[in-house]
TrEMBL record:
GO terms for cellular component: bacterial-type flagellum basal body. Residues 290-299 have a biased composition (Low complexity). GO terms for biological process: bacterial-type flagellum-dependent swarming motility. Coiled coil: none annotated. Residues 120-189 form the Flagellar hook protein FlgE/F/G-like D1 domain. InterPro entries: FlgE/F/G-like, LlgE_F_G-like_D1. Belongs to the flagella basal body rod proteins family. Keywords: Bacterial flagellum, Cell projection, Cilium, Flagellum. Residues 290-310 are annotated as: Disordered. Its main location: other. This is Flagellar basal body rod protein FlgG.
Length: 310
């Protein structure tokens, strides 16, 4: 497997030599129609190799742009485009470099929000969501983003008050004063005429033998595949799963400086390929990442029931 840096050197050095050398006369005595035709075909093949590699650079560039757009998205895992030499069966010719997209499994740092319904997963695991729109096995999807809400029908959901509910279901009473989410996923509320802490449900987590085999659905959540293997489900802390950190969110694992450097490398590579093709590749400038979580809330009193529509 070649990294981007190796691919860049190989394509720019070998490829550029191929393009500049293809049409050079080999000497008047050796010139002939047969050799000229051979050189023409060689140049055309080299141009097609350049074009297919440039298409891969465009694809990788868009992936890095998407990473930057999610630099503030809770629980987002960056995608790493790693360039490999495509087989001739795939590309139709030798020497074409194409990106393979690999998800970076490293966790983002926990960020304290102070919000009653935020949880960060410390270690392995994903929240389990009943999300039929994701088209996952048994209608389930998985997420590291622990921005939770209480739905209008008093159920614990993810992402927004109308988001997918967590599995197993957690139902809140009509009135309560405070919420605690324990490290093992136990959900408690402070309720009653003489308020006391009462457990109302349990958050479970799932992990997979191969996280890289998970596929991101159009909903933004992950779904299991044959490559990921089936989910292993337990309460936080069991079966090698992580624990929950209440009133925190896991940040994105996108390193903005590294992603910007990657954009510059891809752009330079694409422009070098463009010179060989006689074109000027166009690359979009990165847009600033928008924050996708609420501002920190540090309220210490008052009924949390008002937070259910936040």
């Amino acid at each position: 497997m070649k990294t981007l840096g190796v691919g860049l050197t190989g394509v720019m050095m070998i490829g550029m030599l191929g393009l500049t050398g293809c049409g050079e006369p080999q000497g008047a005595a050796a010139a002939s129609a047969r050799f000229a035709h051979s050189d023409e075909r060689s140049m055309e093949s080299q141009r097609e190799t350049y074009q297919q590699t440039l298409d891969g650079v465009y694809e990788a560039y868009d992936v890095v742009l998407n990473n930057l757009a999610h630099a503030q998205t809770p629980g987002y895992r960056a995608i790493r485009p790693i360039f490999e030499t495509a087989s001739s069966e795939v590309s139709g010719r030798n020497g074409v470099l194409q990106p393979v997209m690999l998800r970076d499994p490293s966790p983002g740092r926990p960020v304290k929000t102070g919000r009653w319904l935020d949880v960060a997963i410390q270690g392995a695991g994903y929240l389990i969501l009943d999300d039929p729109a994701a088209n996952g096995v048994d209608g389930l999807a998985y997420s590291r983003a622990g921005q939770l809400y209480i739905s209008p029908d008093s159920v614990l959901v993810a992402g927004s008050p109308n988001g997918p509910r967590l599995e197993p279901i957690v139902v809140f009473p009509d009135e309560f004063h405070d919420i605690q989410i324990k490290t093992d996923g136990t959900v408690q509320v402070l309720a009653g005429a003489r308020p006391r802490w009462t457990a109302i449900g349990q958050i479970h987590l799932a992990r997979f033998a191969n996280d890289a085999g998970l596929v991101q659905a159009t909903t933004g959540h992950y779904i299991a595949t044959a490559e990921s293997g089936p989910p292993l489900v337990d309460t936080p802390g069991g079966l090698g799963l992580g624990t929950l950190q209440h009133k925190h969110l896991e940040g994105s694992n996108v390193n903005v400086a590294s992603e910007l450097a990657e954009l510059n490398r891809l752009k330079d590579w694409g422009e070098s390929l463009g010179e060989g093709l006689g074109i000027e590749p166009e690359f979009k400038a990165p847009a600033p990442a928008a924050a996708t979580w609420d501002a920190p809330v540090h309220a210490s009193s008052g009924p949390v029931i008002s937070d259910r529509h936040r």
